[in-house]
Amino acid sequence: MSSETFETRRAALADVVAIPVTPFAGDGTVDQDTHRSLLRRLLDGGITTLTPNGNTGEFYALTPEERRLVTELTVEEAGGRANILVGVGHDVPTAVASARHARELGAGMVMVHQPVHPYVSQGGWVDYHRAIASAVPELGVVPYIRNAQLSGDRLAELADACPNVIGVKYAVPDAARFGAFARDAGLERFVWVAGLAEPYAPSYFSAGATGFTSGLVNVAPAVSLNMIEALRSGDYPAAMKVWEQIRRFEELRAANGSANNVTVVKEALASLGLCRREVRPPSRELPEAERAEVAAIAAGWSI
Fold it and tell me: Looking at the whole model, is its pTM more than 0.85?
């Protein structure tokens, strides 16, 4: 990876990192035409970093073939208009195959989902990410950290072995822990992405983040862009105005252990006539009684 390419990819992470939904057709398959139209809406709305196969895209509910399809659709539709950060995960061979597929398509980065395993040692966490990152040295690699036990020293150890580890999606809901972790790992060494989206972005930016992920951006790109513009300029009162605007929407997504995280986004899109509301198990559609509130929120944003 040239230093110039390296810097371009780092810059792409210091932004609104959109996690597109994966829309389904009436027969339950991926709705390719709707997927393309939703991606175009993000691109036309000013979004320049897309993460196919993120959690808002129902990564764990997709088949391997569908994950490849989603990556292909995203790279093709972006057509060079956006930086592509492809979500990869599961067992090491599967993750490596997905990362190599992303590389073949011309994507510049991969995000490595938190290892789904009941027994994760810190050294094993390093080994898992090292195996993936070393298989695609040309790609920027972004670990997705949800493990509160992981120490910043371990991330530094990983990057010593794999210099293509250039950024971190940090998603432990604790701004003080994030601030300490980032400094233990190397604040300037990585691009720090607030991995819990807009609700945590102001507190994480105050501790050193320069980008944030977003599922809400599927519904209202301008709202997410308003927040990052405020945060970049250090205008925290303005950022908190946006925070207040999106608070209820994000509370609905976060309720009951984030049970409806994707459901609420798809419900909002359905209320705007942009895609079907269906999600796959273990997610579930919203009860009829709660749909009106989501629709009212979506209708109230300047979209």
Answer: yes
Q: Given pLDDT bands bounded at 50, 70 and 90, which one contains residue 303?
A: low
DSSP reduced 3-state for 63: coil
Task: Say if residues 88 and 101 touch (Cβ distance below 8 Å).
Answer: no
Q: In the prediction, which pLDDT does 125 show?
A: 98
- Of 151, 161, 169, 160, give the one whose Cα is nearest residue 189: 160
Alpha-carbon gap, residue 111 to 57, rounded angstroms: 13
Strand partners, 50: 18, 84
The letter for the amino acid at 130 is R
Q: What are phi and psi of 191, to 5 degrees?
A: -90, 125
pLDDT the model gives residue 2: 64
Instruction: State the DSSP H helix or E strand holding residue 84, giving kind and residue range, or none if neither.
Output: strand 83-88
Residue 1 is predicted with a pLDDT of: 55
Residue 86 and residue 108: Cα distance in Å, rounded?
8
> Prior bond to 282 cis, omega within 30?
yes
Pick the closest to residue 105 from 126, 132, 119, 85 (CA basis).
Answer: 85
d(C-alpha 251, C-alpha 51), whole Å: 23
